[in-house]
Design a protein that fits this description.
This protein has about 400 residues and is mainly β. It is built from 5 helices and 23 strands. It is about 10% helix and about 30% strand. Strands 6, 7, 9, 10 and 11 form a 5-stranded antiparallel β-sheet that branches. Strands 16-23-22-18-19 form a 5-stranded mixed β-sheet, with no helix packed on it. The chain is globular and about 65 Å long. It starts with a helix and ends with a strand.
């Protein structure tokens, strides 16, 4: 997979791709005759039709796509396998000039509204690099029964990349935050599919924005942010619904009320504030905004459907995360939850980074098995074996992930 994507491009195709790069090809003039660059076309994917075959495209307009779950095995998710979620029209990336890109902080609770160029953000504030887990609020929606409307994400609408930028907190404090501040509102250049108004403008409680784990980032995994992930600047909040990590970001408003931007009103990114029966209708006044994600885990190795020989140990590994919390325990079962086996578990690289676990299993006899995984967070909350509380929009599914293995 990796080899194919990075294989040398040929002739004119390579030249045209190189010309489209959002980065300078340093020393290109010194390259040997006939030499062509590595394929970094993922930086400039601009439509669903340009995505590689390993993406499962849920929607072409807006673009929504995810990889197979086992492709999320690396500790740091490569940009070219991270899920893609847009709510509206993609910006005109090819005509974005990062030298002219600006980021504005304003709002009723901002003492001194300011506009920064990208260069000013880089020069005026301390740089930080964080591994931040971004998960779509509707990740695993396809697992709910009865089905909930919306993109039918499998369990792969989550990734943990390394982001570099400045702290949201530092920039907001540079502008001054009034005592009556309640929420933030995030803004970008993406438009609704109609072309009228923003596609989305969500935010977080002001306390969350003033923590030290949210960035205004210009780099993903050490490179310019790929178009599909929010070039040239992205607001990134780990541990919270991915919708607050605004792509192609142009600013933050400091609000004296809960932000009333597009997709802030119920039932979008909200769940009922009381338990409901599956399929039950809920009045919009009875929804609460999702502000943090919850404990969850993913098996990334082996791939479901794997076959091994009897007596051969089976290494199982993956990731676990818990929104703003840490994961404290990770367990596997191969007998439908009758017994559980504790795995090793790493500490997070930083707050809201996902954690890695692994365990070698000895499956006792030939036949078909399901491997189940469940995580427990630092508050003692464990993933449910069956589906969690059903909700009309299908958010926050965190039932145990499972894969199939056959022993022969």
């Amino acid at each position: 997979m990796a080899i194919d994507r990075r294989y040398f491009l040929k002739g004119a195709v390579a030249s045209s791709v190189a010309a489209m790069l959002p980065v300078n090809w340093v020393f290109a003039a010194n390259r040997p005759l006939g030499f062509v660059p590595l394929d970094i076309s993922s930086l400039t994917w601009q439509s669903a039709s340009q995505l590689p075959d390993y993406f499962h495209v849920l929607n072409t307009n807006p673009v929504n796509a995810q990889p197979a779950e086992h492709m999320l095995d690396p500790v740091t998710t490569p940009a070219d396998v991270a899920f893609i979620r847009w709510n509206g029209k993609l910006p005109d990336f090819a005509n974005i000039d990062p030298q002219k890109w600006t980021f504005t902080v304003d709002g009723e609770s901002c003492k001194n509204p300011k506009t920064y160029t990208l260069a000013e953000l880089k020069s005026r504030f301390t740089h930080h690099t964080r591994k931040l887990t971004i998960e779509c609020g509707g990740n695993s929606r396809s697992e709910f029964y009865p089905n909930a409307k919306g993109n039918q994400w499998s369990n792969a609408a989550v990734f943990c990349a390394e982001w570099t930028g400045v702290l949201v907190r530092d920039v907001l404090k540079d502008c001054g935050v009034k005592d009556d501040a309640v929420y933030t509102g995030h803004h970008g250049v993406d438009k609704h599919l109609s072309g009228k108004g923003p596609a989305i403008s969500r935010g977080v409680p002001i306390a969350a924005a003033l923590e030290d784990d949210a960035l205004i980032a210009w780099a993903m995994n050490g490179e310019d942010i790929p178009y599909m992930h929010g070039y040239p600047l992205r607001i990134v909040f780990g541990g919270r619904p991915g919708s607050v990590s605004h792509k192609s970001a142009t600013g933050i408003s400091i609000r004296n009320q809960v932000h009333d931007g597009k997709k802030m009103a119920a039932p979008a990114y909200s769940v009922p504030d009381y338990p409901v029966a599956p399929g039950e209708k809920v009045a919009n006044k009875d929804f609460d905004i999702i502000e943090e994600m919850i404990v969850k885990s993913l098996i990334t190795y082996p791939q479901t459907g794997t076959e091994i020989k009897l007596g051969q140990p089976l290494e199982v590994r993956g990731h676990a995360w818990a929104g703003m919390r840490d994961v404290k325990k990770m367990e596997l079962s191969f007998d439908y939850g009758a017994t559980w086996h504790q795995t090793s578990l790493t500490r997070p690289a930083n707050k809201t980074a996902w954690q890695q676990w692994r365990l070698s299993l000895d499956l006792p006899k030939a036949g078909y098995y399901e491997i189940w995984a469940r995580a427990t967070d630092d508050q003692g909350v464990t993933q449910p074996v069956v589906q969690p509380q059903w909700n009309p929009k299908g958010y926050l599914f965190n039932g145990c992930h499972r894969i199939a293995v056959r022993v022969v």
